[in-house]
Amino acid sequence: MKKYFTKALLYNVLLAIGITGFLLFLVNWGLKSYTRHGQTMKVPDVRGKNFDDATDILEKNHLDYEIMDSAYMPDKPALSIIEQNPKPETVVKSGRTIYLTVNASSAPLAEVPDLVGKSSYKYARIQLEGLGFKVADPIYKPDPHRDALLAMLVGGKALKQGAKVSKGSTITLVLGQGLSNETINAPYLIGLPYEEAVVKIREEYNLSVGAVTAADGMSEADKAHAFVYKQDPAYGHRIHVGEEIDLWIAKELPDGITIRQDLYNKDVSDTTE
Fold first, then answer.
1. Contacts of 177 (CB under 8 A, 6+ apart)
2. What is the CATH number of domain 183-263?
3. How many CA atoms lie within 13 A of 124 on its CB side?
4. 109-176 and 183-263 share one CATH topology?
5. In this predicted model, what pLDDT tens digit does every residue of 124-134 receive, in sequence order?
6. Per-residue confidence at 202, pLDDT binned at 50, 70, 90?
7. CB 114 within 8 A of CB 57
8. Is the four-CA dihedral 162, 168, 170, 176 of positive or negative sign?
9. Longest dimension (CA), the chain
């Protein structure tokens, strides 16, 4: 046995053990250095601070950061930090990424859903508030369909289908009041451009537009250039405020239609309770 256990062999064994130990030390040291073993800190509170100040604080504390999300809160400064994750005072290792939610500098736009004539006040309110809009107290206009959603207003102006409005805006819903006991004479509409007749019916007389029958071959776009050649009820008939007037329209007035321009501004405000 002594024959084989020479000094050279002992030297090689000890050398191998030394090299192995040194390699283990290097690996252990590298892992500790990479994971910053033992280097922990509490996350600073950067909520409410503007973005530049918040990131300076995080960098000085050897923490990384990343914008996780943005939101719009009108009562808070633009580009301020709304939320952070991990939360303040959380113990983390140096180099940890802090995820930030930043307040947008302006309200994002959202498309207003097409609700007119299709939903109740309650459903429309839920839909609009869910999209981030405010809903004012409704206003009522005479209309045969009680509580029907007739229009949506922002700043007093009616919203068109597909309109985009800043989140947080206040939308006023216009609802049908039902037929009034008040009556007026039906206005004279023959010969008027279709769009002008609609405004006169709704705005001047608090009536409603009923069925609209277009001449053969007319497209939806043609309505902007069409004229009224027939109405029902006819001019002078007593009707309830809010009642509907049906219209027949064409791009050109049919032969035999006589226009009484003197009746356009005829006083039809004579009412009966």
1. 140, 141, 142, 143, 146, 242
2. 3.30.10.20
3. 26
4. yes
5. 999 999 988 99
6. confident
7. no
8. positive
9. 137
